[in-house]
Amino acid sequence: MLNFGSLSKYLLLKVVMYSLMLSLVTSLVNGWITYQDALARQQAQVDSVLAAYRSTLTKAIWEVDFEAAKQQMQGLERFSAILSAKIISNGAPISYQKAGADLMQESPLLSFPLLANDGSRELAKWEIRLDENALQHDVIRQATRFALIMSAELLLIAIFLFLLLRRIISMPIQALSAHVSSMNEARLGIAAPLPSEKHHHEIHDLAYGISKLQSELLTQFTLRDQAALELAEHRDQLNQLLVQQEHQLDILLNNMADGGAVLTGGGRIMFANPALARLMGNDNARHMIGSWPLQWLSRPSWPSIAERLLSHDSLLGESLLLNRIDAQSLPVEASFSVLERNEQGEPIRVQVMVRDLTARIETERVLVEAKETALQASQAKSAFLANMSHEIRTPLNAVLGFTSLLTDTKLDSHQQQYIHSIHEAGTALLTLLNDILDFSKIEAGQLKLEHIEFDLRSLLEDTQDIIASQAQRKGLELICVIDASVPSGLLGDPSRLRQIVLNLLNNAVKFTPQGEIITRARVVAFDEEEVRVRIEVKDNGIGIAPEIQKQLFRPFQQADVSTTRRFGGTGLGLSICRRLASAMDGEIGVHSQVGEGALFWFEVQLGRSKLAPRPIINTALAGKTVMLMSPSAGNRQKLHDDLRLIGCQTVLLENETALMANLLAHEHHADVVLIDLPLAAEIAIDLPSRIHAIETYQRTPILLSVTQGAVGQGAMAEKAGYAAYLTKPIHFDALQKCLAEVLRPVDQAEPQPMLTLHRIAEIDATLRNAVLLVEDNPMNQKIGVLLLEKLGCRVDVANNGLEAIEAVKTHYYDLVLMDCQMPELDGYDATEHIRQLPIEMARVPIVALTANAFAEDRDRCLAAGMDDFMSKPVQLNMLEAILHKWVSPEKPH
């Protein structure tokens, strides 16, 4: 008996069903075709009848030969499709009926007219009925025979296909299914059965795939068994290791210095190590097992700890007070860790580690005492440094002040050299003193930065002035280039910023034998509140080796020992600069190669001033053309930038030949001619006369810029016809005022004196020349008066605070320079009294003048109501900067 599987049954059902469906569809199509053929044959018989009998019947009717017509009608029996026929005319009807046919059936009636030969009239109507029953019987007979034959053929084909598919597909798949169903780990080595056909097809691939899968599974099971054996061996090793570690842990717990315990969720001790027992005064740790929290914990309470452990897995650095068995309290530091929780998340096992704090508390007490002792020593050192600073700065003020005044007197070359040596020695001593004080404050963490408004351009130019004479004696050009992106109003600590720049400039002058030192400033980043400013100082000095650059910003470090011997210095300056730059959220660095000079740079974060920036462009100078001649590319670029910022147009020329050629060619009309002379260059005496000889330049002012004015050089320039004689470095404001003054309309009949920087300062000082100097030291009074008068100021002197108050009450002053330490009434109290006077007296600017240079002294001055702070010794450029800052021409009298 054949064993039909589900797939075979499914295939048999589908084959038979589709065969019957195909037979049905084929039979229906054949029936429709047979019916159409029968209709065509029926119509053909009708057409044959009409062709054969219509003309003869028409003739018989025309001749009224009804017998002939009847005979012809009987001839229709030869046509099986004709059921009946009838001729209707004026005579008797002539008819025909098919013998044995069902005359009652519904069949179509066809009517044809019989016309006369000429077609003029109808002789009769010929009605013919077709035999539909015969047609249908014939169609059904033929269709049925076709359906039976087709069904038999398709069924035979289906059975053949079924048997073929069963042999090729069903039986191999059935065998594979039985093989897979009976598969287990023991039968994995038996290959899957292959089909009996030689031809390779997909079932062969399936059998091969099953065999391959069996092989891989067998391999995996083999590897599994091997891994299980290895795992068992490894587990045994781990168990041995665990036993060893448990033993080591027991040794560790028993010998560790810190106490350890495992607690229940309620705080009872489940385990305690010997160290904890010793801390608690117990000789056996087992005696502590089962102790309740009230027995071992003094404070805090265990519920407060347990409540915190509900939301934390660990608590670190907890301060506890334990109860010893001798009723003493033991301070400890504890750490709690939750080892296990219940389903509600509550701790059920907690580990605690404790460390005795008795020794630490004692150490901290000793450290606090040592700190207080060190603080007292630091305060004593600070007081000593402050007193030493005051005692050193007071005579140093006299030394530097008188040497500055002596420099401008008539001295021979040897005397000038001696004065310069004294001034340099005093300046070096002042720098050393400042470095020591600053480094001391930085190391003590007492560095405080101000946040006040200042102008970076003025700060850099004033800083260059401080070292200008030193640089000029070495034959160095100082150039300051400020990018237009730098705002005029910034917020920060200008004194500390100046300190960094001054240190870098001092180093550049010290290590540069000849050439130029260029200071540049530009903005590298900004937002609405702050700007990040980068300042660079570039020289062409001896340079620094790359391996030495990393050490430059450490305390007491210079390039090498020979550098210290040759150039001097403590090595503190750059270290202080690095600390100051870092305090201003910045950084400092250097780029250099040996023999190629150095570029020191630093970046600082500064605030933007909320005040409206002062206008730079002078409307009176806007659009004026300045013809600038300078052999130095650096100076040419610096003056070009400044002139463009003022609002002037510039024509840049490199030498005198190009200047004269341009003037004679009338390529550009110049309102001013500016001659910038390089180092050691002689004044062109005949140049002004040659320029004025040109018709269009007879009244054109000619300005002369020199690096260092020799004795009698100014008089020589005035005699030659120069309108201004300016010594470099030239400030931006001084250049602007000089241009405004030489272009100011004047009476041509009156000769105008040649402008100099001092003359510009005198013109500027006519609006701000009333200064009150409050100073008790006669020597400092004399120096202060001489310096202020040199700047064109009218000076009154008060010996103490009481005299200062009376002077302010009775006279108007543009500025008060107030010493802080004076007899009868010091500067702090005097300032407070002045600020309580009526508003027109109380608003006078007061600048502190003291030998103390600490930040707390500055803060005390500002807290007393003073506006600014200037430490002794007072130098001319510092005093000029203070006057420029607080007594500007815009302030009303």
Automatic annotation (TrEMBL):
Q: Does the keyword Iron apply?
A: no
Q: Where is the signal peptide?
A: none
Key word Ribonucleoprotein present in the record? no
Residue ranges constituting the Histidine kinase domain according to the UniProt record: 387-608
Organism equals: Chitinibacter bivalviorum
Q: Which GO terms describe its molecular function?
A: ATP binding; phosphorelay sensor kinase activity
Q: What EC number(s) does the entry state?
A: 2.7.13.3
As stated in the Swiss-Prot or TrEMBL entry, residues carrying the post-translational modification 4-aspartylphosphate are D676, D819
Show where the Response regulatory domain sits. 625-743, 770-887
Protein name in UniProt? Sensory/regulatory protein RpfC
